[in-house]
Amino acid sequence: MTGRIAVLTGAGISTDSGIPDYRGPSGVWTRDPELARLFTRKHFVNDAAARRRFWRTLDLHADARPNAAHRALAELERSAAVRILTQNVDGLHQKAGSTPRKVLELHGSMATTSCLRCHTGFPTADVLARGEDDPSCPSCGGVLQPSIVLFGQYLDSDVLSLAGNIARVSEVFVAIGSSLTVDPAARLCAIAAECGAKLIIVNRDPTPYDDLADEVVRDPIGEAVPALCARLAAA
Questions:
Q1: CB-count burial class (<10 Å; 0-12, 13-18, 19+) for 161
Q2: Residues 84-142: pLDDT tens digits?
Q3: Other residues' Cβ atoms within 10 Å of the Cβ of residue 22
Q4: pLDDT band at residue 24, thresholds of 50, 70 and 90?
Q5: What whole-number distance in Å separates Cα of residue 119 and Cα of residue 12?
Q6: Is 107 a catalytic residue?
Q7: Is 195 annotated as a binding residue?
Q8: Which residues, in sequence order, are CB contacts of 187 under 8 Å at separation 6+?
Q9: Which residue is catalytic, options 70, 93, 107, 119?
Q10: pLDDT digits (tens, 9 = 90+) for 155-185
């Protein structure tokens, strides 16, 4: 039976579920570079106009459903010790059936929102349902931010430490649908490889870690991941 498998997933794994990626040819920020500015902590906190546009453009993709790649990773748990380290905030791994405690959300979750002043949490859907341009905390009036890591924010140190430990002890490390250009998540590939893991990269476009990989797969993710999972399950 295959040993410990760590899987790093990026936006590319969710495109088949109707959620666009960010940096691809048709990515959100490729089509509208200015939109990326809304995802910086500095502008979100200090610029009410940026917050208003952020909330206007925010899409929870509540109707998005897991695709074949998400489901294949969930199924792989039946035959291997799998931990998922995801850069995504869409919750589709859990919806596909991956054990929630085995999914580490490196960049947080869009499902919840919290107050930057009093730290009270709310379902993001409830905040959006208020229909306000720049919703504030009903408890203290503070700025509300979805529970995601914006550019200029540090990843949670405990989450990052756990992700590093998972990478270090993995026997196989698979990176799926990530450009591998955003640190520190991308560096998990190097950590795993340096500790002896077999590194497999599944991505449409070249990444900075391709030369370090034992295997690079360019096939469509919806086809490549189920095939890879079947191979790992049989190993």
A1: exposed
A2: 999 999 999 999 999 999 999 999 999 999 999 999 999 999 999 999 999 999 999 99
A3: 18
A4: low
A5: 31
A6: yes
A7: no
A8: none
A9: 107
A10: 999 999 999 999 999 999 999 999 999 889 9
Residues β-bridged to residue 217? 202
229 known ligand binder: no
Residue 151 has pLDDT above 90, yes or no: no
What are the structure tokens assigned to 45, written together?
A: 């906190």
With contact defined as beta carbons under 8 Å apart, do 185 and 87 qualify?
yes
**DSSP string of 168-207, one letter each residue:** HH-SEEEEES--S-STTTTHHHHHHHHTTPEEEEE-SS--
Query: CA–CA distance from 83 to each of 15, 46, 203 (Å)?
Result: 21, 37, 19
Q: What is d(CA 91, CA 87) in angstroms, rounded to the nearest whole number?
A: 10
Q: Is 230 exposed, middle or buried (0-12, 13-18, 19+ CB in 10 A)?
A: middle
Q: How far apart are CA 73 and CA 199, in angstroms?
A: 16
